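Researcher: I need the complex structure. Ligand is flavin mononucleotide. Inputs:
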Amino acid sequence: MGDLISLSSPLTLPCGVVLKNRLAKSAMSENMADKNHRPDLRLGRLYETWAGGGIGLLISGNVMCDGRALGEPNNVVVEKITQHLASLRAWAAKGTKEGTHFWMQINHPGRQIPNFLAKTPVAPSAVALRPPLDKAFNKPRALEHTEILEIITRFADTAEIAKQAGFTGVQIHGAHGYLVAQFLSPLSNQRSDQWGGSLENRMRFVIEIYGAIRARVGSDFPIGIKLNSADFQRGGFTEEESLRVIETLSKSGMDLIEISGGSYEAPVMMEGARKASTQSREAYFLDFAAKARAHCKAPLMVTGGFRTADGMKQALSSGNLDLIGLARSLALDPNFPKKLLSDERTTSQVKPLTTGMRWLDKLVPLEILWYTGQLHRMGRGKTPNPKASVTATVLRMVKDVGWQSLKRARG
Ligand SMILES: Cc1cc2nc3c(=O)[nH]c(=O)nc-3n(C[C@H](O)[C@H](O)[C@H](O)COP(=O)(O)O)c2cc1C
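Model: Output:
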């Protein structure tokens, strides 16, 4: 059965919605909102370009559900009392051209807020990021019970507005060390009330968010989640725990579970875990997908490391996943999906990056800044430039996005 599925096969989600093929753009934070945190024309241009490139599903970069809690200076914010509906509608219209699905990724960063954006961030518990990141991110305070309920409502508010604006689905950002992932991990969640302790308690936050969103958007609107296979830290959220969360979310009716892994503290989502079994195949989380498959009926998307048409086809024909997630490759070539669908020798242009100065490579989130630079080029109506100087692009992005981003952080 598995080997009959090709990259061009449509995929029907549990809610009944059909994606036109098996290629999905994973979230990449664009840092391109205007000063009021509204999407502007550049975001429309960028997503129209991607929608024209043949992809089945576009997932936006993380959109914040609370204007007081930004992950980066120029994030789009969508809150209940929003002035943004017209610009959100314009953005959604561009990203849904050519029958493309366009989902909004909804996020709250919790403690992963750079210190120049929040003096005291909120988190499940008052646990700081570990050194040296504690210099770039202030120690959070623990959320009160009522504040937790308010944030759950915020996720639902943002999802409802996304639907009103014409987005065709939403994705909860439950990965990479942001607030949902902070609740799941025993390292960052040391609460002793109903939100912490046992896995059942630690997953209550995400289950409640899912339920609150479903109640607002109805049964026929896609809801997905990006979830860590693990946080790759001793004492953190484990694979076994992730499998139990996946099983529970799948039973609750989640339409798509995207597998990633890691956090700012262990950036596995960008590099893979360097296990021999992972290195022998191009994508990072395929072993975990095979285990997840046994625990869930919900469609699975795997993101991280996919580079060749052949590798993607092999992964699909294993039957362990349903959707191929792509990020950096699409920042370098928006037409990559069309090429993958028509030529089986197609290969991504993603390559290791370096400024040639090891100290600078270590100081800045090189990959994030360089690829954000490519997104900004597309937002200005230019084509990406895979040959762009790493040093010059990184320095320009540091200036454009704010000097403070000269601190190691990532999406
Ligand atoms: C510039 C940039 C921004 C990112 N922002 C986000 C984000 O907002 N939300 C998210 O879930 N992942 C984010 N990521 C991670 C990607 O979605 C993806 O998991 C990672 O790049 C691995 O996939 P790839 O090997 O195809 O690039 C970002 C990655 C990059 C390069």
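Model: Summary of the prediction. The longest helix spans residues 145-165.
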